[in-house]
Amino acid sequence: MSTRRIAVIDLGSNTFHLLIVDLQQDGQWISLLKDRRYVKLASGGLDVINDDSLQRGIAVMKEFATQIQSWKVDATYAVGTAAMREAKNGLEVACILEEQSGIPIEIIDGHQEAHYILKGIQSALPALPAPGLIMDIGGGSVEFILFRGDEVLFVHSYKIGVALLYEQFHKHDPIHISEINALTSFLETELVELIKKLKDVKEFYLIGASGSFEVIQDSLPKLQTGDHWSELELQDLDAYMSEVIPMDLVERKLRKEIPIERLDYIVVAYLLIRYIIRACPPAKLYYCDYALKEGVIADKTGLF
């Protein structure tokens, strides 16, 4: 059976991901390499990508290019998300990364990003009897996709990524109650349309895609699992997050489930998730480790 080797790079506002797969004729693929680097393009906000972030990005893209070459990849797709599409110098940064690495970059809008995420998750998660709400938390934006089967009920990319929430609200460590209240009020304003849509459906399942949900799935009991997904014990979620939120940095470092790269942003990420589940409690909670990268493969190769 002949194969085609594909590389996908997700140039996120916080993390750069590289995925290399062998694509087979039967529509399946075999994962050969996954590499994740915390570049933090949006660490200084989404207005301008600063030079430190750019230099980190250049270094990582050069390493990715070397890996892609060594694996003799047939086709490479690199997509830039919130930081590149929102920053004043986002296009300039993309051009510099292209020049330094030799890898063309496509800057996608929020709807295209959500489209890829949905395709990726639907290629892994079994069919659900109720609507699913995908929540993909990035550094610059958060994508929400409410779907029922093949029907998309609501989709929106919100500029409330964890890097932005951290810069705006997490001024003290541990976070002050006044900062928590300010962040909650901000979310109440920003997410009005989403909450209305969720209240219009009788029940929904929350599906967390990678990022902070990866930490959650390492912390909660699993009710059932598949190759790239798991159903988590929803009843434990609020209590777990409420335990971590008031911790200071030293206490968070002692939590084995929190990677060092997420120690700063995890508090605002959990406040965001907690806001959603309190405003509109889901019926079930899923984690899926397929998202944008896998959706790009499915879309570009016409598999699904």
Structure description:
The strands form two sheets. A seven-stranded mixed β-sheet has the order 8-7-6-9-12-11-10, sandwiched between helices. The protein is globular, with a radius of gyration of 19 Å. The protein folds into two domains: 3-108, ATPase, nucleotide binding domain (Nucleotidyltransferase, domain 5); 126-292, Exopolyphosphatase. Domain 2 (Nucleotidyltransferase, domain 5). It is an alpha/beta fold and 304 residues long. The protein has helices spanning 51-70, 82-86, 90-101, 110-122, 162-169, 177-190, 192-200, 212-217, 237-244, 249-253, 266-279, 292-301; strands at residues 3-11, 15-24, 29-38, 75-80, 105-107, 132-137, 142-148, 151-158, 205-209, 222-225, 229-232, 284-288. It is built from twelve helices and twelve strands. The model has no long low-confidence stretch (mean pLDDT 95).
- Strand line-up across the major sheet: 8-7-6-9-12-11-10
Rg: 19 Å
Terminal Cα separation, in Å? Answer: 20 Å
Main sheet characteristics: 7 strands, mixed
Q: What string gives the helices and strands in order?
A: EEEHEHHEHEEEHHHEHEEHHHEH
Q: Which percent range fits the helix content? A: 40-55%
Features:
alpha/beta; 2 domains; Nucleotidyltransferase, domain 5; 12 strands; globular; 12 helices; 25% strand; 304 residues
Helix and strand arrangement:
Blueprint: E1 3-11, E2 15-24, E3 29-38, H1 51-70, E4 75-80, H2 82-86, H3 90-101, E5 105-107, H4 110-122, E6 132-137, E7 142-148, E8 151-158, H5 162-169, H6 177-190, H7 192-200, E9 205-209, H8 212-217, E10 222-225, E11 229-232, H9 237-244, H10 249-253, H11 266-279, E12 284-288, H12 292-301
Parallel strand pairs: 1-4, 4-5, 6-9, 9-12
Antiparallel strand pairs: 1-2, 2-3, 6-7, 7-8, 10-11, 11-12
Helix pairs in contact: 1-3, 4-12, 5-11, 6-11, 9-11
